[in-house]
Amino acid sequence: MNSNLIDKITAWEPRAVWTEGGDGMFTVPADGFHDLAGRLRADGFDFLRSLTGMDWGEAGFGVVYHLEATATGENVVLRTLTEERGHPVLPSVCDLWKAAELNEREVFDYFGIRFLNHPDMRRLFLRDDWVGYPLRKEYDPEQNPLRMSNEVSKDSSPTYELQPDGSYIRKRNVLFEEDEYVINVGPQHPATHGVLRFRVSLEGEIIKKLDVHCGYIHRGIEKMCEELTYPQTLALTDRLDYLGAAQNRHALCMCIEKGLGVEVSERVQYIRTIMDELQRIDSHLLFFACLCMDMGALTAFFYGFRDREKVLDILEQTTGGRLIQTYNTIGGVQADIHPDFVRKTREFIAYMRPRLREYHEVFTGNVIAQERLKGTGVLTRADAVSFGATGGTGRASGWACDVRKRHPYAVYDKVDFEEVLFSEGDCFARYMVRMREIEQSMNIIEQLIDNIPEGEYQLKMKPVIRIPEGSYYAAVEGSRGEFGVFIESRGDKFPYRMKFRSTGLPLVSCLETIARGTKIADLIAIGGTLDYVVPDIDR
Fold first, then answer.
1. Where is this region: Disordered (predicted)?
2. Quick check: pTM over 0.90?
């Protein structure tokens, strides 16, 4: 990390302790953390990349924060903790970064850490009557029998306020008043793109408030990873954002390889880059098809699915999978590319370019699509950064947030491609970013497909992999934004903590800001253009 930044932080908070292990991080006392975080925010660290709850055993509970200054690209990692295990309390930073609001609720849900001055300290995923906190090290799953009763939705939420004497009191914030007209959208609704539920307060057709309920899947993937060896954890990433399976796994492999100090062959870097871009095309074609279906354009829906099948055929021939791409491995890839891979990829790109023009004729230029998408659901650049809404959503608001440009990996520094940016921040801009990104992905593949170097596709790795003690973070540009992997290692053959930076949680967290004041029918278009995938949220 930049030595000037280290000096600056230690000057602001003399009690901050810098440790070198892994990526390196500052440990900041809880009573001085909010002040330091505020100084960093004012100094340009406007992007909260990741917020990770931690159980450090006897040392206590805490949180690890990854921050980035979007203007300079500088990154810093902070942690703060409390030794109190009975009722752990830490300061909230949701007044500094809007992304913290749902992330802190997630930490409360899984670790029981209460955040002072957070406006809504409800569980985010689990039922209110859930016993215990699942990501604590001592958690006993036997204390939660299967409950078949309905969960009652509450119209208020607890909040904890710090008092001048250092104590804190519990208050309640009202979510919905008794006289408000509140309807459910989802969870069994095709346009919520998975089991996601919105409680929406309406005044006529206009949305006044929106409350999101994310917890209907409960994968428990991060908890399972703590008992799996590093190679075993790879299988779980494909089941998060299943439309970016190759990209997710690429991020995890990169993070493990970073910890090991391993550099894969140039051939592997080329293959991984091409696979990531094919996966992006696959995902964006499904985005196009589903958005069209949500808005009633069934012809375009069939076009999108027809052409996505061609990408899946190419992937299947090499990886053996269509949805679940168990292809990237630690130190390489599972198998070399199929003999027909290069030819079929070239043929697909030649086929796809005129099809894209047809999409624009059928849907993009359609007067109904334009009327419903243009000017609807506007997200400002400042809000996109504050919520951490990366990917096509952030770029549609004018934020150049592409990980491939910000922190190049694989061979993205060797290819020429445009980071597609729009400034409108509306549904139409989010749609157009993804349609243009299909073209850019094809451009990237064309530059690489005939130049894949010779070499080995898999390094010889030790039978038991142990990452040196420390904390590591690696990220890729997934189909929906930054997909990050955080690993804390104690030098064992399994991670002490593994956290996946969801691409979808920031997109859902900004939904109320975007939807407030729009019509109920617009909610479907807004959700469709945000393009979240629910299993990636409820990990």
1. 142-161
2. yes
Tokens 């109320």 sit on residue: 512
Distance CA(411)–CA(391), nearest Å, equals 19
CA distance 127 to 60: 25
Res 166: pLDDT = 65
Pick from 512, 266, 531, 517: nearest CA to 393: 531
Stretch (H or E) spanning 67 = strand 61-68
Amino acid letter for position 249: R
What b/e string do you get for 492-528 counting C-beta neighbours within 10 Å, with b at 16 or more? ebbbbbbbbbbbbbbbbbbbbbbbeebeeebbbbbbb
How many helices and strands in the chain, by DSSP H and E? 18, 17
pLDDT in tens, 15-72: 999 998 888 899 999 999 999 999 999 999 999 999 999 999 999 999 999 999 999 9
CA–CA gap between residue 471 and residue 76 (Å, rounded): 13
* Domains of the chain, first to last: 3-175 (3.30.460.80), 221-538 (1.10.645.10)
Measured between alpha carbons, how far is 284 from 288 in angstroms, rounded to an integer?
Answer: 6
DSSP annotation string for 213-233: E--S----HHHHHTTS-HHHH
